[in-house]
Write a structure and sequence with these properties.
six-stranded mixed β-sheet, 17% strand, globular
Length: 256
Amino acid sequence: MEFPNLHLAIENRIATLTIDRQKALNALNKEVIQSLHDAVEWLDGEEDVRVVVLTGAGEKSFVAGADIAEFASFDAKQGEALSVTGHQLLFDRIAAAKKPYIAAINGFALGGGLELAMACHVRIAADSARLGLPETSLGLIPGYGGTQRLVQLVGKGRAMEMMLSAGMVDAATAERYGLVNQVVSAEELLAAALTMAAKFLKNSGQAHTAVIQAVNAATEGAPGFAAEQKLFGQCFTTVDFAEGTTAFLEKRKPSF
Ligand code: DAK
């Protein structure tokens, strides 16, 4: 099977799905989101696949966020609508997949990129990886579940600090926080993800699906997700959003 902007390799019942849009550090535009959705749908129905490893092409970036050039001109309605669609198409879809998804974070995982990794069921990072939710530096809040899933993974205080500062944490800090399960060298990253996948393969796929559903019953769909989508949409009407996104595109620091 082929999907635009993605590479798919399947071996020993493990699928490796690689996002490849390197000119924009694998940033998620509408086409990539749609492609990933199609791939996840297809993989869920593929009996020969039991575990999926999701990674980014190149050495620099897993995914450097949503495509800022694309969303810079959105108004509140488009922002909220796209947040809802993005959730359904990709982020909630991966979280609710029948098979475990392992994010192999090979570099920057920022904004929507970290949200994508957090929608996966486990995460392994290269020691060179840098992770963060920099949305407030653009006058936004995370709009793809980040305000909820980051709190669940690292706790409220650390999540607040990461979002309010818009800063990045290195891989060692991410491991200490519980944001990633394991850190390995960049060269070992895919092998480590495949080793973890092979451990999963020894166990029942039907039970894996049930574990995912049971865990999600407690962690997904809480009222916070809906609140995030609404508040995210409202950010698109603000002066700060215009300044934040314009500053990024003009390659200068924003003035808030
Ligand atoms: N979008 C578009 N292009 C991006 C990008 C992004 N997120 N990140 C990087 N690029 C592009 C750069 O513009 C540059 O393009 P050219 O100038 O070469 O054409 C190229 O990738 C290489 O990037 P840099 O030259 O900046 O590389 P550096 O090594 O200097 O810096 C960096 C790497 C990752 C620190 C830097 O690129 C960076 O700060 N990137 C932006 C990180 C970020 O703020 N990401 C967005 C977070 S906000 C939505 C739902 C959710 C969201 C949005 C909308 N809707 C429902 C509408 C979520 C928003 C986010 O993800």
